[in-house]
Structures are given as structure tokens and as C-alpha cells.
Amino acid sequence: MKTVRSYVAGAWAEGGGKAQTLVNPATEEPVAEVAGGSIDSGDWGRVVTHARTRGGEALRALTFAERGQLVKALSKLVHANRDELIALAIANGGNTRGDAKFDIDGASGTLAAYGEVGIALGKTKFLVDGDAAQLTRSVRFVGQHIAVPRQGVAVHINAFNFPAWGMMEKAAVALLAGVPVITKPATSTALVAHRMMELVVEAKILPEGALSFVAGSVGDLLAHLGGQDVLAFTGSSDTAQMLRGQKDVVAQSVRVNVEADSLNAAVLGRDLARDSEGYSLFVADVLRDMTQKAGQKCTAIRRVLVPAEMVDAVKEDLTERLGAMKVGDPSREDVGMGPVATKKQQEDVRAGIARLREEADSVFGGDGSVAEAVGVPKGKGFFVSPVLLQVRDAKTATRVHAHEVFGPVSTLIPYSGEAKDAVAIVARGGGGLVSSVYSDDRAFLGDMAFGLAPHHGRLFLGSSKLAGHAVGPGTVLPQLVHGGPGRAGGGEELGSLRGLAFYLQRTAIAGDKPILEALFNPKSED
Amino acid sequence: MKTVRSYVAGAWAEGGGKAQTLVNPATEEPVAEVAGGSIDSGDWGRVVTHARTRGGEALRALTFAERGQLVKALSKLVHANRDELIALAIANGGNTRGDAKFDIDGASGTLAAYGEVGIALGKTKFLVDGDAAQLTRSVRFVGQHIAVPRQGVAVHINAFNFPAWGMMEKAAVALLAGVPVITKPATSTALVAHRMMELVVEAKILPEGALSFVAGSVGDLLAHLGGQDVLAFTGSSDTAQMLRGQKDVVAQSVRVNVEADSLNAAVLGRDLARDSEGYSLFVADVLRDMTQKAGQKCTAIRRVLVPAEMVDAVKEDLTERLGAMKVGDPSREDVGMGPVATKKQQEDVRAGIARLREEADSVFGGDGSVAEAVGVPKGKGFFVSPVLLQVRDAKTATRVHAHEVFGPVSTLIPYSGEAKDAVAIVARGGGGLVSSVYSDDRAFLGDMAFGLAPHHGRLFLGSSKLAGHAVGPGTVLPQLVHGGPGRAGGGEELGSLRGLAFYLQRTAIAGDKPILEALFNPKSED
Predict the structure, then answer these.
(1) Which end of chain B has less neighbouring CB within 10 Å, N or C?
(2) Helix (H, G, I), strand (E, B) or coil at A466
(3) Three-state SS for A232?
(4) Would you call A15 helix, strand, or coil by DSSP?
(5) Does A141 touch chain B (CB under 8 A)?
């Protein structure tokens, strides 16, 4: 059986913490062993120092264009090994083939996009930020902002749901910025991330120390971080709070970015007739977000706001489509949805459904139990049925706005059809990653966009003419920022050049105009 | 005697916490009373809600240009009452007239600059962030980033050293962004801030709820903050850690900005002859930063790196100038330096000097005691002599890089004259707000700038031709970012438009191209 190990300080090593067995969540059969920990407390300092010095110095010696080429090479490497990685995602992640492609192609696509961003930045080792500004009445005294790589390490703690995409979207931006990465996948689905790390090491694409990989626990790694280091986390709000409040992280002003819980909403406009393309887009997006990755997406639609007079139609259309979907062994082509990733997730999702049902009725899927999963031995696998609920009283409902159930679960919330009412309901979620609005009424779209913007990092405006041209709100795109205020963690990633800022230090340089011009705006060498 | 009170929820109220007496730090005579606290725990929620709703809604109803006009009006108000405010700063802050002008004019100048920034943004309620980006192969599906005001409140906790500037530089940016402010001055020097608040209330410039003022303790105010709110703090690292680690602040993803300790360095290049203008600029800047505001500036030069062969000359020149400066009653025109702000500061500075002297010898000022302060009754006042030290062994010195002594104290550190050595020494400070380099050698300036940039929010490159044209590194300018990594708190303020980002939510909007163009790039109304 495969052994998942760490790659730290330029060599393979055992993992941190205790040995663990990884299983296929559809069959519960073991698929890999995570090596028990031999990295002790003292070693973590050495791991960080190696990355910071060997990796950091090597990366900073390169131009943005050169680092862009490295990131592009990583994209090609992932793509070249797509089939093997898809098979691992199916075996260890409970992914359908479609789910697995979404993860793997998300990784290679984001790497490719950031490779191009780097190449476009050209032969430079720093970024010019804005124009020079005259600072006093003298024309001589000017200020110029620049941005340079932080001389630290980036620790990335990733979520279980996207072992490929999660690892590579964070790594792409950090490496392009010139900052070495220590990446830690969630243990339960670590097989895909581990194989990617093996491929990276074998291919010798990156300088030594540029990318380290931690299997299992990170021990006291965070206690070794300092003011040039950054910590990026994707996962639950509870873990985010624990990480962000860590004594050393606070004391050293370690930069922290968090992507956490989010009760993403989809709002249907009352102008969309049931036979309109906009309505079909809405139904397709809700359905995809409920079932893709068995609903284990931080961007999945959890709340579905429907004008009261349209609720029956929406229930009918979603119920029909959900009823036609087979749940079972995700390696089978006829199966539309696999299991959730772990026993713990299954328990959490079921408990979450029960909690929501205190204020909502089941429209489809009952309590989430699955009588018989297709192609799986009776009683095996961490399956949950897709569950569609409807709140009994939209005015008094609270759980639906506060409790993210991380599985194939969405809740219908009837509303008046007025933008201001929809905004008020969505805002009760306390800050989210993304919400979507479906309408062909520009005034309604505008009111919703400006109303929802303060509460979100991203919005998706679905309209009839967009059908067939757009990916849904659940897809994180490298061109757009990903993150959100409040409950969503207050973070921001990606967004093309915007994502680099987290890894760079912006510095204002004041001085004599001709000297600053010579230093920071030299003639291009291209 | 004047009573300092709070202005919250649209009315004057008693302060938070216990009653306190404010004194003149030169004479120790009482100058004002801070009213004892009648704001109890339940009231803080009301204070926050009033600011968020009344103040926030009123500000967000205005365009950036209209808010710019408000901020400009605040600038005029401060300037119109300059003489009264200067007198209060002398009486309650221990400021010389020059110190007081620096603070008051810093406030009105920053307000004026941000007023212009707002007016230039025009008749808009949101900012367009970058160009629209095509997101897939379809030309229809595009994304546009915008930035809108957060729908929360900004809590500003200010330092004692700049009661005017500190309050108004933060308020200027928040108000322009459309976010109401709850400002809390350091209690010991609150008189200037309190008078400014009285003037603002009397002048009825701002909408109700846009600016609240807390005298004394903030009680459990922070426990009432949520995901749309922000907290900005200027002060010591210890307090910063306490605030940043607060359970509710962490749990709600409250955005936090910190400006904390900083061991700012000035580096003299070996190319500057003693009779050069660049050398004179260096000496003048070090001297100003040691004595202006009695060294109580977060940007003051604490470490002075001098090529070994030039140390004797620098000591001679600084000693001569320091010896000519009178310490005493700051209201007297012949006095160059007043007391520090409080008894506690005096004790801290003296303890800090003693700590530095464990690894440094005194060049001027001994242990900081002042035998006789000019114009002050014997034994009265919180005076500290300017103290210039020199480390005994630059290789092994540690305290000089770790312990900010917040008074008229700087330490000479001999170095080789090589840029890489100077960078390594300065970097030992663990991140700073600003450092400065003095040289006419462009290669040296370039090596220093790129070497120091990762460790600083701002750099000042002093050269001979700049003499007479520049303000020194100690002056925070609205056009340039203020803040720094690591020990300096990891924050960023000001920098013209850059400073607004903290108060805005950036949101990516994806949708159909013609719809996005209509919503976010309408024809200008001007």
C-alpha cells in the first residue's frame, strides 16, 4: 500500500503526528497509509529555515517572468498526469470522474493562468505600484511605491475537498510572488496532493526548498513563523479562529488569510418565466452546486431565495432532477454523486440536516440517509442523499443563515420578489464567498449587486443571454478574487495580480526624483 | 477646570471607566478632568449600532466627492482653530510650539489631502477596481471588480503622541470611504482631541453618527464588533497583541490594522564628506527625530548606522548640537525640547535607557536625567535629557534591535560601509515603519532600497540635492503608505487611494458583458 510522506528540507521524511490509514469513502477500503510522525518539535524550525533560505533565495533570484515559467511548467506537469490523478481522486476522495476533473483541471488551469500573469510581468524582480507622487511643493521630492517579495515562507493549510486545486491555486500565487511554500493537505484526502508532490520532486521543476509538503500534523510549525512569513488557511471557521488567534502568529504579525464558512445564496428574480433560459440556468446551477463534489464546495449554494409565487415550480423542477440522479460508487459512469469524504463528514452533514429541519421541512431527501448506494456493498461508504429543504418561516429562520452544512444540502427561502428584501435575507449570512442572482431585469440586478457587494467577495449575475457561456457561481476563477468578509473569514485570494499582494511587501520610497526614476523606472530591457 | 467627555450616540456623555485628572507634563499641574464612566456594558452595543446605522447610512448616501467636501471642511475647521489647539497641545502634551504645529498641521494637512482625493473621485458611490476581464472563451462572460463601503463602523484607538494628527489621519480615510468612526484618544493627552471633537459637533459639519468620541476606557466595545467592522490601532506592540487576539475580533473576522513598535534606522553612506549637503541633511534629520516631540514619534530614528571611520565625526557633530539645546518648559521660545507626556513614559524611557546601556556607552546625556529644566520648578515635570548611545559591539548587540525606547534616545551602530552589511543590521529590527539612507552614490542607494524594502513600509533616500526640498523620514505623508511588517504591526494606512481599501469591500462581479458595462461603467455625469 502507498505510504504518504512529508517532503521537507529537501528530502522525503515521515509525517508529523500519528500514523493514519486513508480509505476509499465509497467502500471504506484502505487506499494508503500516512507515515507516523518523526518530525519533532526542533525539526520544524529547521524545515522553516530551509524553505526560507534555500527556497526563498532561489526564487527571489528569478524574475517574475522566470517564476511564471516555473508555474506554467507545474501546470503542464499536472495536466500530463491528469488520468492518474483523476483515478486517485476517485479512490481517495469519493469523487465522480466529473468531480475529479473539476479539481485537477482547476489546479492546472489556475497554474496556467498565473504562469501567464508572471510572463506578462516580464524581466523584473519588483513591481511598480502606481505613479510617482510629488510630496511637497518641491518638484524634486517624490515618492514611488514598489512591491517586493517578502523574505519569509508561506504556510498553506488546505481543505479536504480540493486536494489538487486548493494546493495549486495557493502555491501558484506564492511561487510567482517569489515566496517558498510549505503546503499541508487535509490528511483524509491527501493522496492526490501527495502524488502531485512526488511528480514535482521527480520532475525537478522547482528550486530546492521552493515547495515543501507536510503529511499529517504540522506540530508546532506555526510557532516558528515571523514577521516576513504568511499563513493561508482554507477550512472551517473554528479552525480558522484557532490558527488566527495563535500566540506566535499574533505576536509576530504573521499575515493571515482565511477562507472559511459561507452560506452562499442564489436569488431568483421574479421576472424569469419558467421557460426562460435564465430560469434554466438558475435550476442547473443550484442542482450542480448541490451535487458536485457531493456539495463539499465552499462556494456551493446553501440558500435558495425564490419569489413566493414561484416556489412550487422550483420545488417541482429541482425534485424531478434530484430524483433522477444516482448516488453510489463514483467510479461508475451512471453515478451522479459519490459519498462525502469521511465518516466524520457524514456524521456532521446528517447532524446539520437535523439542525436545519428544526426550522425547515424536507422537500427532497428526508434526513439524508441513502437506502442503497449503487454498486457499493450494503452498509458501506459515507453516503448522504441530496437534501432540499424549505424554511417554514422565512422571517424567523436563523439556522439556515448561520450553520453551513458541508454536503449536498440546500434550503429554499421564499421571499417577496423585492430586491431590498432579498438583500436583507442574504445579508443575515454574515458575510460570504459568493452569491448569485438570476434575472433579466437590469434594475433588479443592479440593486442586488450593490446591495450584496459589501457582504461578499464575489457575485454572479446570471441572465438568459449568459446561458451556455458562463461557468456557475461555484467555480473559483483565477481572474477574480476569492474570499469574503465576516463568517467567510475576511480573506482574499487570486484575482490575477491582486492575489500577489498577500505575498509582497509594499514599500513607499521617497527621495530625489531623478534618483527614483533611475532606480525604479529603468528603460525596459525587452 | 475643563471636563473631557465622550460624544456617543449623538450626544455628550460621561466617559468610560474611572475619572482621571490630566496634567501639564512640564509642571504637573492639573489641566482637565476626564469624566468618570457612566457608559456601561449594555450601552456600548447601542453606541456601535447608532454609529453603524445613523452614521453609516448617512455617509453611504453621499458620493465620494461629497464626502471629500466634508473631509475638506474638517481640515478648514482644524486650521481655523489652530492657535487654540496649539495652546492645548503645549499645556497637555508637553509640546513645544513647533511640536504642536507639527501635530495640528499634520491633522489639517492630511484632511486636506484626503478631501482632494475624494473630490477627484467624483460623483460616484463605488470605485471601479481595474478593467473587466474575460473569464472563459466566451466574450460575453466577464468579471469586473468594484469596491464599496463596508456597512460597519471603524473603531480607531489612537496613541498619546499625536492627539490631533493621529485622530484625523485615520478619520479622514474612514469618512471618505463612507464608514463612520468611533475614535478613542489616549487618555493622558486627550485634551486636543476632545477640543477638536467639540469643534466638529458645534460646527455641525458631519452627519449625526459619523464621528463618535470615547473619553477613557472603551469597556467591552470590541465585543460588539462584527464582520463589517474594522479596528485600527496605533500604539505599543503589547496592546496591539491584546487587541488583535481578542476573542470576538478573531471570531468575527474584524479587519484589524496595527501600527506598533519600530526601530527605525538612519544609514549614513561612506561617500558623504563631512562638508557635503547630504551629510548635513543626515545630521539634521537625526537631531530632529531625537528631539521633536521629545522623541515620541513612532517614526523617529532609533538606530543610526555610521561607517566605522566616520563615527567620531558624527559623534562630535551630534553632541555639539544636542548640547546647545535647552530642555524645559515647552511654552518658552528658547526651549528646544519639552518633557515626555507622562510620569509613566518618563519611567519607561529611563528604564529603556538603562537597558540599552547594558550593551551601549553613553555619548551624550548619560542616564537621561535632567539636572535643571528651564523655567520649571525644581523637581517638577516629566523630563528626560536627549541621550545618544553607541553600541560597544555591533556584532553582538541585541537590545538596540529589539527594544524601542519611546523618548529622545538614539543609538549609534558602526558598520563597514558596505550596503549588504547595513541591510543585515537594519533587518535585525524585525520590521519597521521607515528607515532612511543618506548617500549620493546611486548604486549604494539602490542596493539599500531593494535590501531594506521587504522590511519596511516606507524608505527615505536622502541625497545632497534633496537638502532643502524634503521633509525628513519622521514625517508621515498622506500620499505614501504608513505601516510596516513584523514588529511594526503588519499594517498599512494612508498612501492616497491605497488607504481606502481597509474600509471598503472589494467584490468581483461576474456576468454578461453588456449588463456589467451598464451597471459599473456608466457614462460620467460630470
Answers:
(1) C
(2) helix
(3) strand
(4) coil
(5) yes
The pLDDT-based confidence of B435 (bands split at 50, 70, 90) is very high
Tens-digit pLDDT profile for residues A477-492: 999 999 999 999 999 9
> In terms of pLDDT, which residue wins out, B184 or A522?
B184
pLDDT digits (tens, 9 = 90+) for B265-324: 999 999 999 999 999 999 999 999 999 999 999 999 999 999 999 999 999 999 999 999
Q: How far is CA A272 from the centre of its chain?
A: 31
Cβ burial B85-97 (10 Å sphere, 16+ → b, else e): bbbbbbbbbbbbb
The C-alpha of B106 sits at a distance from chain A's nearest C-alpha, in angstroms, of 13
Asked if the C-beta of B284 comes within 8 angstroms of chain A's C-beta atoms, the answer is: no
The reply to whether B106 touches chain A by the CB within 8 Å rule is: no
Chain B residues close to A488, C-beta within 8 Å: 253
CB of A135 within 8 Å of a chain B CB? The answer is yes
pLDDT beneath 50: ranges in chain A: 525-526
Q: Which residues of A touch B470 (CB under 8 A)?
A: 135-136, 138, 140-141, 510-511
Burial A228-261 (b: 16+ CB within 10 A, else e): bbbbbbbbbbeebbebbbbeebbbbbbbbbbbbb
Count of CA atoms in the C-beta half-sphere (13 A) of B248 = 11
The mean pLDDT value for B431-448 works out to: 98
Tell how many helices (H) and how many strands (E) occur in chain B: 16, 22
Q: According to the model, what pLDDT value does residue B523 have?
A: 55
User: What pLDDT shows up at residue B18?
Assistant: 77
Residues of chain B neighbouring A485 (CB-CB closer than 8 A): 150, 227-228, 253, 505
Comparing CA positions, the residue from B293, B129, B277 lying closest to residue A479 is B129
Q: What is the pLDDT at residue A232? A: 97
| pLDDT number for residue A526 | 45
Measured CA to CA, the distance from residue A430 to residue A484 in angstroms comes to 10
Q: Please report the pLDDT score of residue A15 as a whole number.
A: 61
Query: Which chain A residue is nearest to residue B260, measuring alpha carbons?
Result: A253
Residue A85 C-alpha cell reads as 490523478
Coil, helix or strand at residue B403: coil
Task: Report how far apart, in Å, the C-alpha atoms of B370 and of each of B161, B194, B287, B334, B405 are.
Answer: 21, 31, 18, 17, 17
> Residue B49: enclosing H or E segment and its boundaries?
helix B41-50
For residue B91, the one-letter residue type is: A
| pTM of this structure | 0.96
Q: Which residue of A has its CA nearest to B430?
A: A227
Q: Which of B116, B247, B249, B253 to mutate to test the interface with A (most CBs of A within 10 A)?
A: B253
Catalytic residue among B259, B404, B492, B493: B259
CB–CB contact B512 A463 (8 Å) = yes
Q: Is B427 helix (H, G, I), strand (E, B) or coil?
A: helix
Q: Are A21 and A30 in contact (CB under 8 A)?
A: yes
| Tens digit of each residue's pLDDT (9 = 90 or more) over B56-112 | 999 999 999 999 999 999 999 999 999 999 999 999 999 999 999 999 999 999 999
Is B116 tagged catalytic?
no
First to last CA, chain B: 51
Give φ, ψ of B435 to 5 degrees: -135, 165
Report the residue count for chain B.
526
Q: Please give the residue of chain B at the shortest CA–CA distance from A504.
A: B454
pLDDT at A16: 61
Residue-wise DSSP of B477-521: -TTSEE--SGGG-S--EESGGGGGGGGEEEEEEEEEHHHHHHHHS
d(CA A298, CA A308) in angstroms, rounded, equals: 27
Cross-chain residue pair A449–B519, CB shorter than 8 Å: yes
Residue B14 falls in the annotated catalytic set: no
Which pLDDT score, from 0 to 100, does residue A41 have? Answer: 60
